[in-house]
Every structure is written in structure tokens, then in C-alpha cells.
Fold this sequence. Notes:
seven-stranded mixed β-sheet
Amino acid sequence: MKVQFFKWLVRSAMLAALFPVVACFHAEVAREEGTMKLAVTSSAFKDAEAIPTRYTCDGENTSPALNWSGMPDGTKSLALICDDPDAPAGTWVHWVLYGLPPTVAGLPEGMPATQNTQGALQGTNDFGSIGYGGPCPPSGKPHRYFFKLYALDAQLNLKPGARKGDLVKAMQGHILAEGQLVGTYRRK
């Protein structure tokens, strides 16, 4: 009985000693998440709602207008990735854009599929082309499309046509804030 009580006492003391460390770490993560969020919106669709056919392979396959706010001080450039984590073969990349000036508060509808546009560089999507490639899932269940915007503390040294993996690697350690807009699409 004394041995069990002693083991319980030691465990309790160890947990009590760790609690301030865990609480402090949790508070720091929560503080960073609370202050490092960008608001991303579109006039084409609301968050978690269906993307109109116009912006898909079944329509005009044109990029939707995007707007954002909440840019933190120290932002030197912006990057955007749109991908579909529900694709059968794994996450499918629909759009890679980077080097966008921090003074830009959005993108117009129908961004041209050129490497250099709006002061930014566009990368190669998983369709193998430059610029935006709209939702084009197989028939069946709806897919989710994440438009993720990143505020960066640096200009990235990437050439036009970079892929998502190149951009993600170059952004490591430079993300000041991020935000996302999610749209869905289901083919008939």
C-alpha cells in the first residue's frame, strides 16, 4: 500500500511540475494563431459553399476573384496555393502563385495563365500548365478546394513555373500569417 501511494505521489509531483510548461506552450500557440490569421473571401462563392461552374473545367475554367485583409506588418510578399485534398490520387494542385506584392489586396477574376502577372509569378499546377486550373473532379462526391494565402517576411528566390513543393520549401520559416477560403465542387 505504501509503495502504491509513493508511486502516485511521484507521478502527481511530476505532472504538477510539467503543467506550467504545457500551459505556457499552449498559450503561446493560441496567441500566435489568434494574431496571425488573414481573411480570404471571394465574390464568386462563400466559404464552404459550392464553386460556380464558370470557374471549373465544366465552365470557362477561369480563376475566381479573391480578396484578403489582415496583412501583418513586415509582410514582404504573398503566396497563394489552391489544391484539392480529396483527389483520388492524393492532393491535386490547381494554382501556385508567389511574389505578389503585399500592397495588393486581391486578385481579379480571370487571371491570365502567364508566368508573370499582377506583379507576381505563377507556378505549374498538376495539370502541367501555368496558372489556374479549375476544379475537375471525377463524377460522384463533392471535392473541397482550398485557396490558401500566405503573408511572407521575404521575397522568395523562385523562378517562374515553380511547383507547389518548391514554394512550400521556400516559404519555410518565412510565414507571418495565413488564411484560407474553401469551396466545393461536384460534377454531375
